[in-house]
Amino acid sequence: MKTCDLLQYIPPFSTLEPAKRDKIESLFQLRTFSQDTLLLQENQAVAQIGYVVSGNLAIERCSKEGGIRSNGSLTVGEYYGLMALVDKGLSIIDLVATRPTTCYTIETVDFVEMLNTYPEISVFFENAALSRLGSLYFQTRSAPMSGGEPIVPKGRKKLQRSLEHIETQYMGSITLDDVSAINGLSRYHYSRLFKHTLGCSFKEYLNRTRIKEAKRMMGNQGMNVSQICYAVGFNDVSYFARVFKKIQGTSPSLYRKSLLAKKQSVTVDVEGTPDLWLNSLHWKIDGCGQAGQKSLVLR
Question: Residue 148 falls within a domain, yes or no?
Answer without folding.
Answer: no
